[in-house]
Amino acid sequence: FGLWTLDLDRANAAMEWRHIYSIASAIVVLLAVVLMSVSAGGWDLTGSKGTAMRSDLCDDQRDIPDGRGLFNQVCGAGGTERAFSGIHNTVNSSNLSGTYRCACCGTPLFSAAEKFNSGTGWPSYTAPLDDALGYRKDLLQMGSTEVHCSTCGAHLGHVFDDGPQPTGLRYCINSVCLWYDSELSTVAAEQLPWILNAYLVLLLLFGFFASCCVLTKNAAVAAYPIWEKRYRRGSDHNSSSQEGRMSAW
After folding, report:
1. With helix as H, strand as E and coil as C, how does 29-65 read?
2. CA dist., res. 187 & res. 130, Å (int)
3. Active site includes 104?
4. Catalytic-role residue among 102, 172, 212, 213
């Protein structure tokens, strides 16, 4: 009787822990769903490899100073140019006018006034123009957020949350994806999307899938007695039917 009581206590303790795990897992899943959904890129996890540049919108007559081959590799295939190699990497502090356009379709992307020297080797900006960019989560780039032209889909680069104030963002863009228009004056967007920290993205995704596994396991454990009861009821019914046939025989 003592051993039976001990086993019962252990079973009750295990059930209580399963309830705690289930509640914690549900909270993690809910938190991941909310944060991923409201941040830039949402649940689009294809990143730069999801780039689908519409070549029919590209101006093939426009000169690409960094090379047409590199343009196709970066803007079309989602690659990355070598650091400090692009023609637009430097910042001319004496000339903050003009606009940087998409090298494919020519859509205005960034005001020259938002450009700064990040020291990374790629052109960097604190904010884009209104509705100029699209966003994706890029798992192959450690959870960072990929940016592309909202008009033609050309891959541009990534955005990080380590930029200067007032936005605190750093839009790290491949030089080959840009062309400079000195005659167009633009103003950056005031409302910017929320950029999740790359490490937080990975943590949320790990917690989401791990918690889903825990919830699935606990649901299976909880459903097993119900399944077993129905299975036994069906087995007993079949046995009774067979005995009835044998008796009739």
Report:
1. HHHHHHHHHHCCCCCCCEHHHHCCCCHHHCCCCCCCC
2. 9
3. no
4. 172
